[in-house]
User: Fold this.
Amino acid sequence: MEFIKLNNGVEMPMLGFGVYQMNDLAECEKSVEEAIKAGYRLIDTASKYGNEVAVGKGIKNSGVAREKLFITTKLWLQDAGYENTKKAFEISLKNLGLDYLDLYLIHQPFNDVYGSWRAMEELYKKGEIRAIGVSNFRPDRAMDFMLYNEIKPAVNQIETHPFNQQIENNRFLSENGILHQSWSPFGQGVLNVFNNDVLKDIASKYNKSVAQVVLRWLIQRGIVVIPKSVHVERIKENINVFDFKLDDSDMDIIKSIDTGKSTFKNHTEPEVVKWFSEL
Assistant:
């Protein structure tokens, strides 16, 4: 496993295990356990996913010492605000069966994010969270956030995959000392990433799968990534990306398939903001 230092000195694994849309809680629990046994040390969930309890059980079942794990969860927008955030944090901690979090993120850039951040800063200073960050913040929102808060976000988790490479956003985050983390590294299957001819050719060259090439490409860009799978073979395959390196020409070839468009939703559209508020 490779690690990267956050802007507060905390080390974070470059590759972790995501549990978005793992609605079968027994399956989620088992998948987390298998992932940790396979070598994953970063586990990423969110209160909105509804599976924090299952994640906590999987962590416990793995038998791996807590201090060797890096656990992330996220604050949903309906829980925004100073007091609400403190309550939501305690619920997440209880659900996960943990005494502290390694990373706590504001899940969406809406509602009272400033009140939430003040609460998170306090929890961070008390040592109940090792690092605090945001998710789905565009550069303008992230800059505004940095300027008017005491503690700068350590992480911004955003949609990043070969068809939406976030090149400008990546440059902005790098210049400002915020770690870029990818969600949806395979584009949620919308553009059929696993059958893309460009990626298949590169995968064949290295005798790796398309998934492994995508994950290695993100890691070489300095982007932390959290692939999801409920299949043990794929869980093991996805972590097996530290024994090869893409050469510069292949990195450039992958850059050529960027569309710059989301395969999910555009967070800058008013209709999307309203949609999130109604979830």
